[in-house]
Design brief:
alpha+beta
């Protein structure tokens, strides 16, 4: 199994407030994280970096232990701890007041991939048959789509598309949603921030990863395509080839 990641500030923003991490592919349970920070000045970058580092450290220690714990409770504890740290920093540091971050995480077990998300950073499952968004965005427009008020196509350009309903650091308690995907050799999991998914369609992502060239260059192809479209936000992609 192989993992790659790439992040870019985009064509408009002055600072990259995304953060990501992926482990090595030969670890017993490889994992990857993408966070998209929000907040004034440097605060968004602080929140996303804190979340990635805190969750990375928690998962690395536990997944390398002789007896591997259950992954979903482990992820829940890691997310809760990261939320506590971000909330505390927001309270004691005036420069970080109101900061927060999204999260999407993937942990690869022997027979399946466990995914978790908070906010609108996404996980996609990709193979030769197509692409499927696995995670559900915690956003105002996603709620509007579910209520039948707008279509998915209208959501892409809706003026409220950047408003999320869950984030690490937003409240004292946060709830992640969990999903599983069967682990099938050769298939792919893509984690990305909304700077990618707001600019590229699912079919464009699918084409680039299946037909655009070697998988090790997949993240670069996606990020560069987003940049060619004007990339109004930071753009981050992590690709896992199972």
């Amino acid at each position: 199994m192989r993992l790659w990641g790439m992040s870019d500030v985009g064509a408009v923003r002055a600072q990259n407030q995304d953060a990501f991490y992926h482990s090595a592919g030969d670890e017993p349970c490889p994992f990857a994280l993408v966070c998209d920070g929000m907040g004034g000045a440097l605060a968004g970058n602080v929140a996303s970096t804190m979340a990635v580092e805190s969750i990375r450290d928690a998962l690395s220690a536990a997944l390398s232990a002789p007896v591997r714990p259950e992954v979903e409770p482990l992820l829940t504890r890691a997310v809760d701890r990261a939320n506590e740290l971000i909330c505390y920093r927001s309270e004691v540091d005036p420069d970080c007041r109101g900061m927060g971050t999204t999260l999407v995480a993937a942990v690869v077990e022997p027979e399946l991939v466990r995914l978790a998300n908070v906010g609108d950073s996404r996980a996609y499952h990709i193979n030769a048959q197509g692409i499927r968004q696995v995670t559900r965005d915690h956003s105002v427009v996603e709620d509007m789509v579910e209520r039948g008020e707008i279509t998915h196509e209208q959501a892409r350009s809706h003026p409220r598309k950047n408003l999320i309903t869950r984030a690490l650091g937003a409240e004292a308690a946060v709830q992640a949603d969990f999903y599983t995907v069967p682990r099938v050799e050769g298939e792919m999991i893509l984690l990305c921030s909304d700077g990618l998914s707001n600019v590229l369609t699912d079919q464009e992502i699918l084409f680039e990863l299946i037909h655009g060239g070697p998988p090790e260059e997949g993240c670069a192809r996606l990020v560069n395509l987003a940049l060619s479209r004007g990339a109004p936000d930071n753009v981050t992609a992590v690709l896992i080839q199972l």
